[in-house]
């Protein structure tokens, strides 16, 4: 048997086919077998959907499997490849990074065939799956430490044409929030690697906090909307209902829009996501744990903005991000 | 200076006083200084409020500090001692147990003066604070891995009179759910230790999942209701609003009411807390991670019941609890 990473599935075969992406063994681990689902209805858009890049963001794996069930009856053309769990080692540990080598899969792309296990996963995806699609939807979330609305996100892209195509794809989810998110920590990201190939990549940050039934239903509806917009399925897109409302807004946020904790202590959130805040409104309170009285510190909005993300109540270090603010996207012509 | 655990605060002094519970140093750690707040308005009920027993249940510490602010103006009689964070080491690590010795503070009561650090914390609380109150409210939650409604809970107590007094105290919060919860894992619990002294102990399990602003407001309202019921504050209790409703129900659940995962894999919740389910209704789905198709397993309600808790979507082992079901309390005469 081959010891290099390979696929055990024929992606050109018609209909629904299943197999594995085998990630080669290395000094630090045995080979991994990642389930792969191919739904092939011939000519048309070629899409790759991935989940479980970070092991504590489990909206993606569940929604990916729901979409497999749905597509089996609904797909009319094109090919969709779905990998529900990119990083089974992190998923089993409920951790962002891979426990074996401590690496963040979303910072090591395109990976290395002779690297540690996380780098070998990235290499197998980059070489064997990314070439098979023009559009990639990577189903992330903000994880258990944040409140975050159902949202699709993209980072700013220098190529204006690709930026416009990517934004259209992100807005097709019709989630309560579409977010264009400046991030200065992009080297090695799956996004950047794929976008540099000229392909459309939407990194859905499907929510945060509890992975519950209500949110999962919204996520599934959003991903269905995206597949309808791509033309893979016939149907009519609809806004999912979030907090008794059916509405969407497209926001942007800069690296300077992070509110950070002024000290070490317990962060107490005092706002919710999608709240509109004015300068001076209370975002949260920081309680230094050793303080006996007046030590609590108010954290206030520096300017009129919309709350994109707010940290769950937990212990934070000085300078940790506790909220991400944004504003309506300024669409350049 | 004394090397045994002690208080740096005079609890008999009138008004608001602050100081520390010093937990003695030992072979495994330096001494700890836990902030203690005493609000003393003379004769009347004597109450102890504690939070932060488990370090990933941070509703309690925030609500405890809110109650300090509120009581400062509102209290009319009696004495309230508040310790927002019982286990600062676990809080800083966002972990249920203490990282240094791996122990669960809520399983080592009454502790040991010469034990490891978790046992020394329990010993200091047991000897120095528990004797100062007849009623104890310990502010827990279900933590980040669960969806759980704002609720006050107690375990069944053999002494019928103490059971009735404890249940009245639990219901005084007017939370959406009051839960009498059979638990066969009681040795070393703070609850059991205090109840064996004939005192009232309510272990509020204030929620689960994200520690967000909306839930924190409900929790604070519930704890205020309890303090009004005790007569420490004059005022009128009101049901907090949860999901657009103001209602309360008292449920009971048995150890046999846990639904457990049939296998290892990703649990996908398909119901929400306080849902009424009938026999055969879908509670969740278990996706074995290596399965390629028909491997997903439905987890269904065995009987008509109400969902008290449901696990967040995450990787579980075979036999892990994924939902806790209950039914209206059968009040024995």
Please tell me about this protein's structure.
2 copies of one chain form a homodimer. Chain A has helices at 59-74, 88-93, 117-129, 160-171, 190-195, 213-230, and strands at residues 6-7, 15-23, 32-41, 46-51, 78-83, 135-140, 146-147, 151-154, 177-181, 200-205, 249-253, 258-260, 265-269, 276-277, 282-287, 297-300, 305-311, 314-316, 321-328. Chain A is of the alpha+beta class and 333 residues long. In chain A, the strands form 3 sheets. In chain A, strands 7, 8, 9, 11, 12, 14, 17 and 19 form an 8-stranded mixed β-sheet that branches. In chain A, strands 1-2-3-5-4-6-10 form a 7-stranded mixed β-sheet, with helices on both faces. The radius of gyration of chain A is 20 Å and the shape is globular. In chain A, helix 1 packs across helix 6 (213-230). The first copy, chain A, is built from 6 helices and 19 strands. In chain A, 21% of the residues lie in helices and 30% in strands. The interface between A and B is large, with 51 and 51 residues.
Work out the helix count of chain A.
6
Radius of gyration of chain A: 20 Å
Mean of pLDDT of chain A: 95
Strand content of chain A: 25-35%
Report the strand count of chain A: 19
The largest contact between protein chains, plus residue counts on each side, is: A-B, 51 and 51 residues
Largest beta-sheet characterization of chain A: 8 strands, mixed
Sequence of secondary-structure elements of chain A: EEEEHEHHEEEHEHEHEEEEEEEEE
* Spans where pLDDT lies below 50 across 5 or more residues of chain A: none
SS content category of chain A = alpha+beta
Helix content of chain A: 10-25%
End-to-end C-alpha gap of chain A:
55 Å
Multimerization status:
homodimer
What sort of overall outline of chain A do the alpha carbons produce when their principal axes are compared?
globular
């Amino acid at each position: 048997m081959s010891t290099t990473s390979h696929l055990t599935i024929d992606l050109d075969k018609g209909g629904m086919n299943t197999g594995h992406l085998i990630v080669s063994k290395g000094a630090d681990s045995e080979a991994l077998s990642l389930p792969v689902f191919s739904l092939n209805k011939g000519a048309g858009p070629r899409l790759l959907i991935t989940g479980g890049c970070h092991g504590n963001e489990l909206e993606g794996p569940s929604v990916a499997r729901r979409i497999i069930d749905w597509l089996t009856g609904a797909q009319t053309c094109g090919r969709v490849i779905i990998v529900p769990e990119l990083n089974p080692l992190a998923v089993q540990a409920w951790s962002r990074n891979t426990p074996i080598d401590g690496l963040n899969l979303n910072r090591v792309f395109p990976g290395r065939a002779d690297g540690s296990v996380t780098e070998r996963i990235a290499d197998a995806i980059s070489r064997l799956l990314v070439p098979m699609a023009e559009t990639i939807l990577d189903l992330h979330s903000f994880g258990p430490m944040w409140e975050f609305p159902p949202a699709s996100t993209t980072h700013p892209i220098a190529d204006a044409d690709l930026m416009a195509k990517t934004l259209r794809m992100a807005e097709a989810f019709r989630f309560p929030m579409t977010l264009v998110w400046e991030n200065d920590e992009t080297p090695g990201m799956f996004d950047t690697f794929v976008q540099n190939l000229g392909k459309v990549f939407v990194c859905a940050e499907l929510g945060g906090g509890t992975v519950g039934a209500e949110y999962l239903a919204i996520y599934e509806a959003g991903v269905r909307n995206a597949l309808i917009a791509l033309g893979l399925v016939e149907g009519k897109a609809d806004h999912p209902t979030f907090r008794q409302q059916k509405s969407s807004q497209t926001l942007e946020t800069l690296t300077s829009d992070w509110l950070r904790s002024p000290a070490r202590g317990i962060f107490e959130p005092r706002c919710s996501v999608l709240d509109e805040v004015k300068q001076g409104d209370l975002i949260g309170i920081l309680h230094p744990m050793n303080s006996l009285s007046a030590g609590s510190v108010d954290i206030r909005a520096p300017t009129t903005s919309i709350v994109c993300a707010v940290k769950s109540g937990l212990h934070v270090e000085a300078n940790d991000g506790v909220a991400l603010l944004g504003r309506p996207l300024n669409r350049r012509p």
